[in-house]
Specification:
Helix content: 10-25%
Strand content: over 45%
Order of helices and strands: HEEEEEEEE
Largest sheet: 8 strands, antiparallel, barrel
Number of strands: 8
Structural class: mainly beta
CATH superfamily: Quinohemoprotein amine dehydrogenase alpha subunit, domain 2
CATH architecture: Beta Barrel
Number of domains: 1
CATH topology: Lipocalin
Number of helices: 1
């Protein structure tokens, strides 16, 4: 009998020491990247500036994004698709050009309203026709979806 009572007291004290929280788990910290981002790219080494935009069409909860992009290069407009990953403080995009082996990459920082960073041409030998594929990019969040 004493053993049962001690066992019961032990189980009750063990259960009562456990705390159950009704609070939901914290949400991951990330910005809403969806929507239209517009700005300029400054090509290096020429320092020519031209309009550049990214339209983020979808964003998964933990950071992957897809969308479209367009640049008004001095030689004409070029556009394509983009995909990438995001964190609270930064983005990494891969920009594809249709019917081309060219693949541009962008890495930048984000403060919630502005993305700034570096654009790189990942295959310079296959993309010789792309004269302005490297430089600095600054985009403002213009419209959310």
């Amino acid at each position: 009998m004493k053993l049962r009572l001690l066992l019961l007291i032990f189980i009750v004290s063990l259960v009562s020491s456990c705390r159950f929280s009704s609070d939901p788990p914290p949400k991951p910290e990330y910005y809403n990247y969806r929507g239209l981002w517009q700005g300029t790219m400054e090509a290096l080494p020429s320092h020519k500036k031209f309009a550049f935009s990214v339209n983020v069409l979808s964003q998964a909860l933990y950071g992957s994004v897809t969308g479209e992009w367009q640049a008004d290069f001095p030689d004409g407009k070029i556009s394509g698709t983009m995909q990438g990953t995001t964190r609270k403080d930064g983005v990494h995009f891969s920009l594809k050009i249709p019917n081309s082996l060219c693949d541009l990459g962008f890495s930048g920082a984000n403060d919630g309203e502005t993305i700034t960073g570096i654009m790189r041409n990942y295959q310079p030998k296959q993309c010789e026709q792309l004269k302005y594929g490297e430089g600095t990019l600054k985009l403002q969040h213009k419209q959310s979806q």
